[in-house]
Write a structure and sequence with these properties.
This protein has about 270 residues and is mostly helical. The chain is about 70% helix and about 0% strand. The radius of gyration is 20 Å and the shape is globular.
Length: about 270
Amino acid sequence: MTGDVLAEVGQWWGTYVLVALLGLVVGSFLNVVVWRVPRDESIRFPPSACPSCGHQIRSRDNIPVLSWLILGGKCRDCKARISARYPLIELLTGVLFVLVLWQFGLGLEFVAFAYLAAIGVALTAIDLDVHRLPNVIVLPAYVVLAVLLIAQSAVTGDWWPLARAAIGGASLFAFYFLAAILYPGGMGFGDVKLAGVLGIALGWLGWGPLVVGSFAAFLVGGVVGVILLATGRVKRKGGIPFGPWMIVGAAIGVAWGQSLWNAYTGMFT
Ligand SMILES: [Zn+2]
């Protein structure tokens, strides 16, 4: 009896450890994506090299987080500094994968939301770097989400979440499309295309997550924008891309959208 419980707990922890490691490895791949996609370079070839001296990164120096710590954040060959953003992106992806597993358990929804977390991390970094949300990352997300969420609906036999996902995607796309036309300086069409993806994911989870996730983007983006402008960290208009706030807002919607929505509507009943 006790042995069974121990085996079960062991299996449970094993799954978490494996998913955390998977997140670290995916995060390491995302570092390659963040560097190469804006430069129109292949993400498969050639193997990673130091941007300063051009030496190929040895596989023993390519272990997520650990290698950076062991090397003291410096290239083994030329001792050029390696940005702390590399291990941080790996760590963040690992943590997000664990949180997704915690919320959804292992299954198709885990795959869908872990995938979203991964492209969310990459798009945030790229948008901060070059103010772009590359189509090559955003557009396939429509196909990936459609396949996974249709499959999940077929498994449960409940097609309503899928209909809600379609409504969520269409309405958030339309809202950002209007915003991009009315205020061309504020939003780009990269934001519009990303809004459709985030609307699908939030709508799949419910109206609460959709509403909270959409508003949170403007709330967080507005507050941070005011702080950055007030402290003089950002001067010129349009110096802050909006994609990262859409992604952070959507993450808030996924994690707390339903409970925040319930609390809010509960105040009036
Ligand atoms: Zn080097």
